[in-house]
Write a structure and sequence with these properties.
Length: about 300
């Protein structure tokens, strides 16, 4: 039995904008997907998916998962016959947490170990990117990068992606609120593209704001000015609302988080459902915000960024 892992992630700044080559910042979280691969006693390929999930997530994503697996096998030039695979770990299979990327990364690592391919992290990242195409057509690559390398990541898509690891003084607590809605990232990305083409002037202005904001966010993170990071997350949420990727439930979670002391809150990932991330430095603030989210009937994850 060979094992592989992939981190879950939150995007702190500029999901969606990143697809259009504007820099973004993501962080791995302290939750992982684990893949185990073994030779199968029975003929053919079997997958047992034991990840915890937002109800309905795995069913909704099953054909995308199949497409993704085919792409991974193809990218690794592996014949998928007679392989048994199990997915597990403590990362919730849910929209916005990098669940698809974490599973692609974990699977690529487990297969590399099983078939003794000796893949480097860079090669694992390339394979995971191919796998991500099964889930969201034209991924920017930020999710699989955070999932593969972990830590806090500055990412700019381009002919050659720019990937930079950011260092911060100490990890920071966050609370992640789950709308409970399974979202379709491809549709959300396509929607932004369509609206951008229809309203080029309006979108150019928003995109310019997103671009200048993320440089300030990088500086604030590196100088550990968390108040400023939080303020910029709030602003980033506003820009994401302006491009039409938030929804009532996400806005409600943002409001609950801010009312209960979070110093910043925004949707994370594709939006239109999925998850919200609140910056809550210190265990007390994290607990207060997490509890308030739970009291309103939403799921919550207590974890950290910049680990
Ligand atoms: C999804 O986690 C992030 C998006 O920006 C899509 C992508 O970057 O591929 C919405």
């Amino acid at each position: 039995m060979s094992e592989g892992y992939g981190y879950g992630k939150v995007i702190l700044f500029n999901e969606h904008f990143v697809v259009h080559e504007i820099p973004a910042i993501a962080s791995a979280i302290e939750k992982k997907t684990i893949a185990n691969v073994d030779d199968s006693k029975t003929e053919g390929f079997t997958l047992s998916d034991d990840r915890p999930e937002t109800p309905g997530y795995k069913k909704e994503k099953s054909s995308q998962q199949k497409d993704s697996l085919d792409r991974i096998f193809k990218a690794m030039k592996i014949d998928e016959e007679n392989v048994r695979m199990e997915l597990s770990g403590d990362l919730l299979a849910a929209s916005g947490l990098g669940a698809s990327a974490a599973s692609c990364t974990a699977i690529a690592r487990a297969l590399s170990n099983h078939f003794e391919l000796g893949y480097t992290d860079e090669k694992i990242n390339d394979v995971a990117y191919e796998g991500e195409k099964g889930y969201h057509g034209t991924p920017s690559g930020i999710d699989n990068t955070a999932s593969t390398f972990g830590g806090l990541i500055w990412f700019k898509r381009g002919k050659q992606n720019v990937i930079e690891k950011l260092k911060i003084k100490a990890p920071v607590e966050i609370a992640i609120g789950n709308t409970g809605l399974v979202a379709n990232t491809s549709a959300a990305v396509a929607g932004v593209r369509e609206r951008k083409e229809k309203n080029p002037k309006k979108y150019e202005k928003i995109f310019n704001e997103a671009e200048s904001l993320v440089y300030g966010a990088k500086e604030a993170l590196e100088s550990y000015d968390l108040e400023k990071v939080g303020k910029l997350m709030d602003k980033n949420h506003r820009l994401l609302c302006d491009i039409g990727v938030s929804c009532e439930e996400l806005d409600l979670l943002v409001e609950i988080a801010r009312k209960n002391g979070a110093i910043g809150a925004k949707l994370t990932g594709g939006g239109l459902g999925g998850n919200m991330v609140a910056l809550t430095p210190g265990k007390d603030m994290q607990e207060k915000v997490a509890k308030a989210i739970e009291d309103k009937g939403f799921g919550v994850i207590r974890t950290r960024i910049g680990v």
